[in-house]
Records
---
Amino acid sequence: MVAHLGCIWQELLKWNGWGYNDSKFIFNKKGQAEFTGKRYRLGGMVLPTFKEWIEKTFGASLEHKTTSRASLNVNDVPPSIVNEEFLQDLRATKISYSQDAEDRVFRAHGHCLHEIFVLREGMFKRIPDIVVWPVCHEDVVKIVELACKHNLCIIPFGGGTSVSSALECPEEEKRTIVSLDTSQMNRILWIDEKNLTACVEAGIVGQDLEKQLAESGFCTGHEPDSMEFSSLGGWVATRASGMKKNIYGNIEDLVIHIKMVTPRGIVEKNCQVPRMSTGPDIHHFIMGSEGTLGVVTEVTIKIRPVPEYQKYGSVVFPNFERGVACLREVAKQRCAPASIRLVDNAQFQFGHALKPQVASIFTSFLDGLKKFYITKFKGFDPNILCVATLLFEGDREKVLQHEKQVYDIATKFGGLAAGEDNGQRGYMLTFVIAYIRDLGLDYYVIGESFETSVPWDRVLDLCRNVKERIVRECKEKGVQFAPLSTCRVTQTYDAGACVYFYFAFNYRGISDPIHVYEQIERAAREEILANGGSLSHHHGVGKLRKRWMKESISDVGLGMLRSVKEYVDPNNIFGNKNLL
Amino acid sequence: FFSLFFLVSFCSIAVSHSFFICSQQKELTSKKRDEFEDILEERRLSSDLRYAMKCYTPVIYKGLSPCKPNAIKSAVLQSEQVQYVIKQLAKEMGESPDIIQEEAMEILDEMGHSMQLGAVRFFAFTLSKIFKQLFQRVCVNEEGMQRLQHAIQEHPVVLLPSHRSYVDFLMLSYLLYTYDLALPVIAAGIDFLGMKIVGELLRRAGAFFMRRSFGGNRLYWAVFSEYVKTMLRSGYAPIEFFLEGTRSRTAKTLTPKFGLLSIVMEPFLKREVFDTYLVPISISYERILEESLYAYELLGVPKPKESTSGLLKARRILSDNFGTIHIYVGQPVSLRTLASGRINRCPYNLVPRHLPQKPSEDIQEFVSDVAYKMELLQIENMVLSPWVLVAAILLQNLPAMDFELLIEKTLWLKGLTQTFGGFIEWPDNLCARKAVLSGLTLHANIARLVDGHVVLNDKGLEDGAVGEIVFKRALAILMCATYRNQLLNVFVRPSLVAVALQMTRSFRKEEVYSCFSFLRDVFSDEFIFFPGISLKDFEEGCFLLTKCDAIQTSQQEIYPTDKGSVIVSFLSAMFKPFVEGYQLIFRYLSKETKEAFTEKQLIPGVRNFVFQLLEKGNTQCYEALSSDMQKNALAALVQLGAVKKKKIVETLLWDPATKFLNSLAGCFCLPLPFGFQSFSQGFDKQREQSCLFLIEGLLCVLE
């Protein structure tokens, strides 16, 4: 076996949960919650009210603990079945590969709840038989050719952050499954300052891309919540959306050129232009194809100079309705800052519970004063109010001007400025919140997030109905404690918004929590569709949401996609069974 | 053709109904009903004034943001829905939107309620006095009230009471006040506004007024529907209206009207609310306040216009006794549950929700199914008094019946009714004699005991002219029928099986079913059948008949048992007035009518025709005089395609499909009133055949 490079990254990450090994929520010896590690601002801090919040919200108790198995049990892992001729051919290419159980399991899943649950307590029925690490476009061409020659199944793997079961191997797949890990294709090939574009290999993860561009004074500005781990190729394959899309655009706005290797050959455009009228845009067959057509190897992406100035902000609204009305007005006036998000009351309280211990009496006094002002003086009900967090970017002067405009609108809707600090904490939590599920899993709490996009006039109805549906379904399915069912409006558009839901419950007393969980999630999705929401705004379809594709895009629409698949990949080499 | 007919009917039982069918089946087997409490008892013991002034803090909808009636009106006026229609109309008519807005405001002012606690207290006081005078007891199922209390807090609630009397909505509001529940806003006919003071008083007690017909008026429709929906969405108050649209003059449930129901269902279907509770409420009167008025009305003596002076004149009834009222508040039905799996998930996704949109066929069918389901639930919980049984027996034994036999038969019918799932209020310790006697006392105006025989009360019978005798008799019979009618919807399925058995004179299940199915179609406006489940109804009928040992069934055959013939003939006799009445009406149509006629012309025509037959003693079917039956028969003929409805300059013309009437007339061997014309337009063979089959069947019974 050829020594491989994938290990370095893999070793930094948890094998059975989200993110870095060294970063996690724990309860310290005093029974207080704490976030470990030094990677995040919250690292090493004690969160005095978090425990109480968990107990109150979920009825969970520290005494009832479940534990994941400590490490992978290699004996449970399905054996790697790879044809020797293929191995010979593969060795000849000098592309590194591995048939090691841990490597294969690591690439057998994304981060859906059921996948993590399986890692902790069971084993996947089918996992990749072999992992390959191409280092460049040509390597990928060779691998795809070999796969065609030996009739193998390729599943491209980027950052592994999928939440749509897209990385799960189809159980019934009899051919050898090759996990094509793009992580070693992570170079910036060139930067074109005149046209403000950069050509980047698709395996690069978000944080590296931004770091490396920053060295030259640029950024892409594409910041999905998973940007620490997700890859450029993955963004293209799922039609990703970034937090700051108001300034930089979503992936479809950012991409100038894509190179993709398919069983039919390489697909790409002949030039790198801002727009062209040459029939339907072939990029749109690629973006959102979820690994069913080929492997994206190189992407030319727009870049911008790193902004001179960033400023966070937050606004408190008396209730969610007023908050949504304000966001709608901001969208109408097209003056949305880089990011504007509105969290509902439950999420506001959640954020509150993650407040670290204050350093001085003075801050604590100040906090008390703020609270007094908002609840007593302004008469906001702490159990109803909600908060919008803001992020402004650009040159200093324009940011301040912009800020004033947005705050003026907020005032019209009863909003009160609530400080930079709250805003910043809100965005930091975006990255940290993903770690909380692992903590919950230790205490019988399971949860997940899901998203949708919806026209403005239906935002409120959809949020209310979906949250209510979750509560009811939980009750019907015998969940003993009321679930956490909360949402936030995370993106604004001219014609609608993107809404993000968090949903978690305590599953003690339920024999098959994952099944119950899946039923509830499905009900929630049906509710979204009934309320005029979309099947997905940016998570994609994968295998998790396939059942609704037909009603989402019509029979003919589905047929159109199928015929593309049939032409590009007639032997279903890219057989991950996503989407269609 | 039997098998073909069978097949077709079978196919028409749509798969989509499976949910409803299942739930109905469940209800059939688990009929456990709540206990009643008398709410007047408390009133007779304590001060009405204190009761009226009590601290009233009703439970309200959890999502309610409290607002005044006027705030609702302005919200309605400013709503996108109404503004859209105003702009549309302004553009079309070339008028300024302000003028139309003004018009909308006037409509709102005419329509809107202005609920005030003062008026409510006034009603609480006066109604206490009046109800105590009129009624012995007002019985309510308290568990139902508790369920309602939960429902009101959880989701917007729509109250759907049965409608037999003006007392209905007064009583219901009174009841909710008594139980400290949010008072409903009530859709009332605009005629009430004609009553001085009273109209305004009702408005303040929560009534809002709708015009009787406003099909063509888009502005009115927009304002009205938005007004109702705004109240529903905000959870302002429970919304109350009558599915039957008007008071049933016959005490038989009327077929539902869909307009208001589809309005209140819309907020859920558009997902503007999470769910809506529909609460069927059954209000049963031991003696109906308006009983004689109704009888006159059915015989064509017009209904007096609602007026305050009329109301004052009617106060002499205060000295009369109207027995007990039973109010059964049914289980709140979640609209969401009804719709799940039934309605395509996103029928409203592709058009902005504020645009007026004609509901799709799916939705219309769903609304209709819900309406019928609610009425069936009302029927299920209607309380039947012993007198109802007495009336049913008396009508089969005119002119006089032995008292002892009557008691015996009443007891027998009680058992049968219970087998069929009827809800009889008959105290355990009450002996049959007392029950019958107390019924006779309460209804002394209808029947009395003379020399050990019970006779109908048609006083002055001997002196009058023939016409007057017939009229008096018809009055008494129609009044008596009002009580028998309360049994009919409980009995209709097994009874139509019994009638079909007699008509076909065959034991083959297929034949009996196809006759049953046809009768069910013919009587579809007369009785309440859930749409499209003919086979299910047939099976239920057979099941109930088997349960009381009246018939035995095998795979292929149905035959009456020896002991069952009594039941079978009782059941078919119970429905004989309808079979005969329809036959008379068909005969009139074939013989007497011109090619086209209006409903207004038809009804006096039929009435005179039947009246003459009665005078000559050629028929005994007094019930054919009822305008209700005449209208239903006509509606059935329209539905069967035997009569066509044409709209000509604002008057409806009913155009008898000539070919059908030819064959019908041919059946009766009567001369044709009009020349043979061969109409080839779409009158399908099969329907014609089944019509013929009906006529033959009807003749059989008559022989």
Note: The interface with chain B takes residues 457-458, 461-462, 464-465, 468-469, 526, 529-532, 551 of chain A (CB under 8 Å).
---
Amino acid sequence: MPMKGRFPVRRTLQYLNQGDIVFKSSVKVMTVNYNTAGELSEGARKFVFFNIPQIQYKNPWVQIMLFRNMTPSPFLRFYLDNGEQVLVDVEDKTNKEITEHVKKILGKNKETLEKEERERKKLSHPANFGPKKYHLRECMCEIEGQVSCPAFVPLPKEMRGKYKAAMKNEA
Amino acid sequence: AAMLPALRRCRPGPVPLPALAAALGPGPFPGLCPGWSPRAVPARGRKTRYDPPAKSKAGRVKLPPPVDPEELLVVLERYRQHRLVLSALRAEFRAEVLQKKQEERLAAEGSVEELEEHRRLMAWNDEENARQQARREERLRKQEEEEKRKKLEIAEKQARKMEAFVEEKEKEVLQLQEEAKNFITPENLEARIEECLDNPRNYNFAIDKDGRIVKRTVLS
């Protein structure tokens, strides 16, 4: 089965998870105006091609719109939920610079992200047993060093209830 | 063990007769399954709803269970109060949880430091835009200068070319003027013919193997 597109690595989960821009909750819409030709728009084009999939993956509830060849110079515009609009001029910048800039002004800090991560971890206790969907392990037989699952390896006689009951009845 | 055998199936445990459980059903007590399993068992038994009742039930009169009115009133009142209290408690707890969530959300969003931080970042963004604007103007200015300089160069080159051309032409004209002095005109014709006839020119020459020209031949 062939890979799709010019840079199919953009479709891999590992690549998408490497995106580090997580917008603040007040950012609702992101608009990119850029040109398909021209030296000055090169950084914006690379940004749209490589970094926007990562951003959308990390912010599924932010609407991203692209406008091509409408203005002579490229720029980004963010619409916040209190009606404020933030304009970012990206003419003659590389895509790395653009991501750094955006991360600085509208991205969540590393501390905020870590705090949220810790909050999320607090909800589920890793030592609990239960369905695979919510917990790590279902049964003690899954852990190495413990008694194996009796469905695959029968228990020795001494551990079985019917043997123990028979012994007791005998005695 | 000291039970009637008939009651043994009410003991908690696995279902002893799984095959017949669906067929008979635990009769009039659907909730009292052996093992208290939550399986839904049909209370109808063997007959469908369209089968006629049995002949032995012909004169049966089904009466509702007897009810003591005072006891009923007392029990109903007690239940009413119990449910009232319970629902009030639930509403209370729900409101408390909602309140806590609202507070947390407000605290997370509208804190003063965050607004400050946001304003600072916006200011920084504006500065960055201004810097970009300066760079752009610089670039445009340079481009314009470049263009002007190129245009000037081209104009100069053109002018020089024109000059050279004009010079060439003038030289040619002068040369022609010079040659015109030696032209043969109808007036000169006679004189020039006389001159040529008077001075015969000898164009013969010899050349040896070394390439030296020798003009010794005599004109006859």
Note: The radius of gyration of chain B is 65 Å.
